[in-house]
Amino acid sequence: MPGSMFFLKGIPGIDNPLTHYPNRGWEKVYRNQYKFDDSFTFICSPNCTHECRLRGFKRNGVMIRTEQNYDSHKIKDLYGNQCTHAWNPRGCSNGFTFHRRIYGSYRLKYPLVRKGWKRWADDGFPYLTPRNRDKYKFTSRGTDTLVKISWDKIENYIANGLINISTTYSGDIGKKRLLKQGYPEEMLTHWDGAGTRTIKLRGGMGLLGVIGKYGAYRFSNTLALVDQHVRGVSREDAKAGRNWSNYTWHGDQAPGFPFVHGLQASDVDMNEMRYSKLLVSIGKNLVENKRADNHFAAEIMERGGKLVNISPEYGASSSKADYWLTIRPNTDTALLLGVAKIIIDKNWHDK
Questions:
Q1: What terms describe the molecular function in GO for this protein (predicted)?
Q2: Residue 264's pLDDT band (cuts 50, 70, 90)
Q3: Given this model, what pLDDT does residue 167 score?
Q4: Residue 167 contacts by C-beta under 8 Å, 6 or more apart in sequence?
Q5: Rounded Cα gap, residues 89 and 296, in angstroms
Q6: Where are the alpha helices (DSSP H) in the chain?
Q7: How many CB atoms lie within 10 A of CB 323?
Q8: Amino acid 107: pLDDT
């Protein structure tokens, strides 16, 4: 025994203390935290668009935690291309805590509707003259309150609201109202007299695939049934609502993709980053905004590659980069045009 441990004395009758412990009942507290009845896999699909396949664990019918599933290497696309083990792990702290928001005390448990809007609907949707806009607080919605309403009633309110919009803005009267409200003449080019064309549905952020895009857009198409009901037109002449592309209107998609590739957001296998000798990031914050993929950047560093981060702020990704090029906001294009000029002037480009 080392001299520094000379003061320790053995326990009488116990040769190996690792095989004996007097009271281990307290360990059940920790084991029960991870005890579960069943588990299942699911796709975490928020606005980050990483689509990480995670595993959820439930007990007593309640989801208690989420973990990385480590099965990305088993996934194939429609053409049979298979991922490598390098795609593991997938997931981030947002996905791991998603169930806490689902069961959180501040979650929305029932429909809420603006009090002034409900009063307007109950009064039969009178046309919104300047006086009525003030009366039903369309000009001061931030000062209005929200009232609780049942699920059955909210469906009727939504349906009646859509019918009212479609009726109000259909035909010649609807066109005059739209122009008076500030609609540019160009926006009525494909209006075709249908008030349903003024209803714009946008793919949202939540369940990006199921609800945000497909659900909203399909619902927009079903508004043709409303137009057929309101205007009495044939099935072939009925007009649906309008779809707003979530990314197009946000400017979230880089215009350089269609300029260069002819495709919007063409797929790039992040696995190739592992073998990169140089990674230049511009408009991308791998560490904070691509947390499910930032391990690829770490593997570049492990293999001796260099990281260049171009951003105005010294953020998490800049702190990991070998070179941080700080630029003023909105000068990305000027920088890239300068780089392109140097490449062309020095004949470094493919002719």
A1: oxidoreductase activity
A2: low
A3: 96
A4: 195, 230
A5: 10
A6: 27-33, 93-96, 98-102, 115-122, 130-135, 151-168, 171-180, 216-231, 246-250, 256-261, 286-289, 294-302, 316-320, 332-345
A7: 12
A8: 83
Q: Which H or E run includes 185? A: none
Give the C-alpha separation, 196 to 224, whole Å.
7
Query: Under CATH, to which class is 268-345 assigned?
Result: alpha beta
Taking alpha carbons only, the member of 300, 336, 334 closest to residue 317 is 300
Tokens for 286, please give them: 């791998």
Residue 258 CB partners (closer than 8 Å, separation 6+): 264
d(CA 85, CA 105): 38
* For residue 211, pLDDT beyond 70: no
Give the Å distances, CA to CA, from 271 to 12, 159, 239.
58, 47, 45
Over residues 191-208, the mean pLDDT reads 78
Structure-token match 């009726």, residue found: 167
Instruction: Read off the DSSP letter of residue 82.
Output: B
| Confidence check: pLDDT of 201 > 70 | yes
> pLDDT tens digit string along 105-124?
888 889 999 999 999 999 99
CB-CB contact of 319 with 293 (8 Å): no
**pLDDT, greater one: 284 or 344:** 344
Q: Which residues pair with 200 in a beta bridge?
A: 242
β-partners of residue 89 are: none
Q: And the tokens for 242? A: 């309008």
- Residue 209: how many other CB atoms lie within 10 Å: 13
Residue 288 reports pLDDT greater than 90: no
Q: Do residues 89 and 73 lie in contact, with contact meaning Cβ atoms separated by under 8 Å?
A: no
> What's the DSSP call for residue 38?
E
Helix (H, G, I), strand (E, B) or coil at 76: strand
Tokens at 12, concatenated: 């009488």
The region that residue 137 occupies, defined by phi over 0 for left and psi between -120 and 50 for alpha, beta otherwise, is left
The overall average pLDDT reported for the chain is: 85
Residue-range domain boundaries for the chain: 32-102, 183-266, 268-345
- Helix, strand, coil % in the chain, rounded to nearest 5: 45, 15, 40
**Tokens 């495709």 -> residue:** 263
